[in-house]
């Protein structure tokens, strides 16, 4: 599987379909299509999804049409609308459809949701899982993530069903982040950076770590005004 497409963007379809790990952490390389590619895959393959952000304020903001991560798909003829289901939980709908294509919620408020059961969800996208330095911390954030996954996944594996596939995405390259600390991935990720390893499968943890470097998009961005 090639990590990048011919246009330089990350091959999210390949990562989702060909990497057997349940948990995939994909960090680094801002603007290479991580979130876009993951959401587009879910929409085109009709996989019901959860889009999760760290705090409720972030989810409330992207529920607005102007800031919606689904807005770029209008160019592809994919129309969606976002509706509040209950406080803290949004549904993503196609026109004239009653069943949501997916859901949006925040890690900080998932424990407050009532009657929470999403048995048809197949993919969980935790976007921007590494907090920026100025972001509000979440108490025991790593444990909160594990509890959130167990809440959503429930007992489906005990019932012979596939576990929810998790994509944790972040632009930040801060390896000492709450999830990596909780899961004890910091040393492993640091070694990947030192040895310029982009992908590492950890089978005993059912996890793959991706640290995106050498992207043609990233190289091109170095010539822009900001960089």
Tell me the distance between the termini: 30 Å
Number of helices: 7
> What coarse outline follows from CA principal-axis ratios?
globular
Strand content: 15-25%
Strand and helix order: HEHEHEEEEHEHHEEH
3D structure, described in words:
This protein is of the alpha/beta class. 26% of the residues lie in helices and 20% in strands. The protein contains 7 helices and 9 strands, in the order αβαβαββββαβααββα. It has a 9-stranded mixed beta sheet with strand order 3-4-5-2-6-7-1-9-8, with helices on both faces. The radius of gyration is 17 Å and the shape is globular.
Structure summarized in a few sentences:
The protein has 227 residues and is an alpha/beta fold. It is built from 7 helices and 9 strands; from the N terminus they run αβαβαββββαβααββα.
Could you give the topology of this structure?
Blueprint (H helix, E strand, L loop, with lengths): L11 H7 L4 E5 L6 H12 L3 E5 L2 H7 L18 E6 L2 E5 L8 E5 L16 E5 L13 H13 L11 E6 L7 H6 L2 H9 L4 E4 L4 E5 L4 H6 L6
Parallel strand pairs: 1-7, 1-9, 2-5, 2-6, 6-7
Antiparallel strand pairs: 3-4, 4-5, 8-9
